[in-house]
Amino acid sequence: MTAFTIHSIESAPEKSRSNLEKSLKANGIVPNLHAVMAEAPGLLEGYQVLHKLFIESSFNAEELTVVWQTINVEHGCTYCVPAHTGIAHMMKVAPELTEALRNQEPMPTQKLQVLHDTTLLMVRNRGVISQAEMQPFFAAGYSQQQLLEIVLGLAQKVMSNYTNHLAQTPVDQVFEKFAW
Question: Could you tell me the CATH number of the domain that includes residue 18?
């Protein structure tokens, strides 16, 4: 197997350098995921744009975490589960929620459980869910906008989870304590 390059700003293709610099400024490090994605400048840029848009969606920190981690766990991403555990802690999400997600246990509230279940349906059925399957989502107080925002989060996570599967991206040192 060919080992994937974990680029530095200096070794990255020219078109990726400014996006790696943004990563460094935003995170204090260049996350290994971004360093791997730098090989394909469009992938790195697209990922960063989707991340920004999903963060700016109508979901709160707990809901963002539920969508991200539901997808990460379902995809078996050993890079993103620890990374998003650390990110959730930085976002002041209760550790009980992050542990429930990591261990595939029930969510602490019915509304978050519905979000989790709907996200799983979206992943497992490749976006094909019936009106009857959507009903609990809407009954829990979520909107059509939020159903579509799950698609946005899923697009972001497909980019990162699949990249990490291909590259076997090592977990960043700062997130190693959250290994999964």
Answer: 1.20.5
d(CA 127, CA 114): 16
Residue 52 class from Cβ within 10 Å (0-12 exposed, 13-18 middle, 19+ buried)?
exposed
CB 20 within 8 A of CB 9: yes
Q: What does pTM read for this prediction?
A: 0.95
Q: pLDDT tens digits for 2-29?
A: 799 999 999 999 999 999 999 999 999 9
- CA–CA separation, 45 vs 144, rounded Å? 27
Task: Give the torsion sign (CA, 73, 85, 158, 11).
Answer: negative
- C-alpha distance across the termini of the chain, in Å: 24
**Class of residue 149 by CB neighbours under 10 A (exposed 0-12, middle 13-18, buried 19+):** buried
Output the CA–CA distances (angstroms, integers) from residue 39 to 15, 44, 124, 166, in the order listed: 9, 8, 29, 13
Structurally, the chain folds into a number of domains equal to 2
Residue 64 and residue 51 in one domain: no
